[in-house]
């Protein structure tokens, strides 16, 4: 699982304790045996985490998912709310990036003016 997802064994155990991952099948040596569906689920959890979903909200989603198709609507609503939050965050980040780009442009213009002045002044000697 670690190789397939890039998640450490420690994080996987944390996800189990946090009830994000259901009980995992084990072999006779008590080693965890993850299925392809488990791998895809962990990848989805990682995507939720990378988009800023709090662990508590991920847990809520995982609990709903474990209850099956009867919880499709609440899962849909939860993901829609997260998507709306993500859109707001992207808009804020875009505004910050634009402000930073404007500041960089202003500094570059200032440096260009200083260099032009220095070159013009050097020719006066």
SSE topology string: HHEEHHH
Write out the strand line-up for the largest beta sheet, numbering strands in chain order.
1-2
How many strands? Answer: 2
The major sheet is characterized as: 2 strands, antiparallel
Look at the helices and sheets and give the structural class.
mainly alpha
Keywords: DNA-binding
Pfam family, one: MerR_1
InterPro entries: DNA-bd_dom_put_sf, MerR-type_HTH_dom, MerR_fam
Protein name: MerR family transcriptional regulator
Question: What are the defining features of this structure?
Answer:
125 residues; mainly alpha; Multidrug-efflux Transporter Regulator, Chain: A, Domain 2; two-stranded antiparallel sheet; 5 helices; 2 strands
What does this structure look like?
Pfam families: MerR_1. GO terms for molecular function: DNA binding; DNA-binding transcription factor activity. It comes from Propionicimonas paludicola. Keywords: DNA-binding. The chain has 5 helices and 2 strands, in the order ααββααα. The chain is mainly alpha-helical and 125 residues long. The chain has a domain of 66 residues: Multidrug-efflux Transporter Regulator, Chain: A, Domain 2 (Orthogonal Bundle). A hairpin with a 5-residue loop joins β1 and β2. α4 runs antiparallel to α5. The mean pLDDT is 92.
Topology:
Elements: H1 2-5, H2 9-17, E1 25-26, E2 32-33, H3 36-50, H4 55-66, H5 72-122
Antiparallel strand pairs: 1-2
Describe, in short, the structure shown.
This protein has 125 residues and is mainly alpha-helical.
